[in-house]
């Protein structure tokens, strides 16, 4: 096997513009691609410098159901500060809490896709 990384993760959304505002304005992601192509809009976002991007897949793009993605882990240098920012933006956050591997929290995007934040424990 010669796999080097995941190219993208699909996040099914009902409204791509609403999702775009959440991922750029609230999470601070950059737009990687935004173009029309059959059968719809190809919209991708990512944290600055990330190798893996997130495709915000709207209606008609692959038959995905908004809110069905779960367990997407986003690594951060300061989970507490990020949780405070999410809460200030009106996002319901569960945590943060301490785990053997680090400090983490969970939240959902406007479509119900489940995401987690993790500040990794040093040396784990």
Structure description:
This protein has 124 residues and is an alpha/beta fold. Helix content is 17%, strand content 40%. It has 2 helices and 8 strands, in the order βαββββαβββ. It has a 4-stranded mixed β-sheet with strand order 1-4-3-2, with helices on one face. Strands 5-8-7-6 form a 4-stranded mixed β-sheet, covered by helices on one side. A hairpin with a 5-residue loop joins strand 7 and strand 8 (114-120). The longest helix is centred in the N-terminal third of the chain and has 11 residues, at 16-26. It is globular. The two termini are 26 Å apart.
Helix-residue proportion: 10-25%
Question: What spatial order of strands do you see in the largest sheet?
Answer: 1-4-3-2
Count of discrete alpha- or pi-helical segments spanning 4 or more residues: 2
- What Rg do the Cα atoms give? 15 Å
- The number of distinct β-strands equals 8
Q: What is the molecular shape?
A: globular
Amount of beta strand: 35-45%
Structural class estimated from helices and strands? alpha/beta
Distance N to C terminus: 26 Å
Mean pLDDT over the residues: 95
Point out poorly predicted stretches: none
The description of the largest β-sheet is: 4 strands, mixed
Order of helices and strands: EHEEEEHEEE
Quick summary of this structure?
By secondary structure, the chain is of the alpha/beta class. The protein has 2 helices and 8 strands. Helix content is 17%, strand content 40%.
